[in-house]
Amino acid sequence: MINKTIIIALISILIFSCNTQTKQQEPLPQINKEEVNIFMDNWHMAAAEANFDAYFNAMDSDAVYVGTAAEEVWSKADFASFSKPYFDKGKAWSFKAINRNVYFIENSNIIYFDELLDTWMGQCRGSGVLQLNSKNQWEIKHYVLSLVVPNEDIKAVVDLIEKGRVRNNKH
Fold first, then answer.
1. Mean pLDDT per segment of 10 residues, for the chain of length 171 residues?
2. Deepest in the core among 12, 38, 106, 119, taking most CB within 10 A?
């Protein structure tokens, strides 16, 4: 009887101690805007310098790149295939950030951002999501590039787009 009481007491203590212990969570790395700015500036620089490996290694394996055309929703592999000929010619594209806003998700290894870019198309807007990987390095998970159209010019742009649709449908 005493042995059963001792065994029950020991099991109770063991169960209680397992339930009350809190799992030690590794602290998230300190994230700063300058680090994000350097990462993104280097990514844009890799394209300007036609450095294919540096550009695409900055993207997660399941990254998505959304371009300016409606049909341009690219997986990393498809975007790399599309882009390779430009990089191989030694001239991809040159985007330079004019400004960038970085937003942190509390207690997370994910940030999101938007940036105003100087490009061959004029000003564009980029936005995206970055995540720290298991090696504590940033990776692009999602990037969206869009044209910036001043509000006073939007009607003319819409008219041009519509004119192009009509012309393309005639053939």
1. 55 50 49 91 98 98 96 97 97 95 92 97 97 93 96 92 74 52
2. 119
Domains and CATH numbers, the chain: 33-169 (3.10.450.50)
Torsion of CA 111, 115, 117, 123, to 10 degrees: 140
Q: Are 60 and 43 in contact (CB under 8 A)?
A: no
pLDDT at 99: 97
Residue 45 burial (C-beta neighbours within 10 Å; 0-12, 13-18, 19+) = middle
Task: Confirm if 103 and 111 have CB atoms less than 8 A apart.
Answer: yes
Between the alpha carbon of residue 158 and those of residues 50, 131, 161, the distances in Å are: 33, 36, 5
